[in-house]
Amino acid sequence: MKRILVPTDFSEHAEDALKVAAQIAKKNNAEIILLHMLELPHQMSDAITGGASIPETMLFMKKANETLDEISNRPYLDDIEVLEIVKMDKPIHGITQISQEYGVDLIVMGSHGSSGIDELLIGSNTEKVVRNSETPILVIKKDISNFSASNIVFASDFSEETKQPFEKLLKFSKLFDSKLHLVNICTPNSFKPTHEAEHTIKKFVSEFGLTNYETYIYNDTNIEKGIINFSNSINADVIAMCTHGRTGFAHFFNGSISEGLVNHAVKPVLTFKI
């Protein structure tokens, strides 16, 4: 792991993510890219296009750069190479572009989560990035002074399409010498006999030569609740999931378990796009 991208809006949640990124960077001698997306009001963007309001734009840029400088000098970032970037763009576009341009290995983002009407109509920038990013994303929901990934839950249906994302998880787990807890959540709407579920997981595992792992079948009313309840029951450090990156009407009607976990789980959530 060479580069970790941390988008920041200068909030407390973004700082929680940066503190975790710093711990990972020190463990792996990685560089941190600290990115602030400057999303100007529409009226100012229109004015800039017309050649006006340049002083106002420069003022926003100057203030953002000053704040990044201040953050980069925090003690927990000592001995870490930090690259500061201020970019004018919508968050999802800018984060994706920077991630690709700099060959980022991991994005670490903070999230306050959302629920109810806010979740339905608005969603969070973190949720949108999770839906679209090809780069693995670690979502942090609270201040973690001593980040650990000793026990990682990987919840999956263990289908063929999850094999490639799982290989990325294996690379991440090797950095922390993690034990993997592979779980299939069984619900009334996705019922599968135990012997079938066990056979699917056993066949999946046999292709990777795993040693430090356990497998489970866990029953609950729905998949999201099952993942959260199971993770709590074994005191997991991180929840890992694949996301399909649904958009448009498919996303509206089907939703996404990964995005639901980003909103509702307290534990860190690590996502890999299929």
Automatic annotation (TrEMBL):
<dbReference type="InterPro" id="IPR006016">
    <property type="entry name" value="UspA"/>
</dbReference>
<dbReference type="InterPro" id="IPR006015">
    <property type="entry name" value="Universal_stress_UspA"/>
</dbReference>
<dbReference type="Pfam" id="PF00582">
    <property type="entry name" value="Usp"/>
</dbReference>
<feature type="domain" description="UspA">
    <location>
        <begin position="151"/>
        <end position="272"/>
    </location>
</feature>
<comment type="similarity">
    <text>Belongs to the universal stress protein A family.</text>
</comment>
<feature type="domain" description="UspA">
    <location>
        <begin position="1"/>
        <end position="141"/>
    </location>
</feature>
<dbReference type="InterPro" id="IPR014729">
    <property type="entry name" value="Rossmann-like_a/b/a_fold"/>
</dbReference>
<protein>
    <submittedName>
        <fullName>Universal stress protein</fullName>
    </submittedName>
</protein>
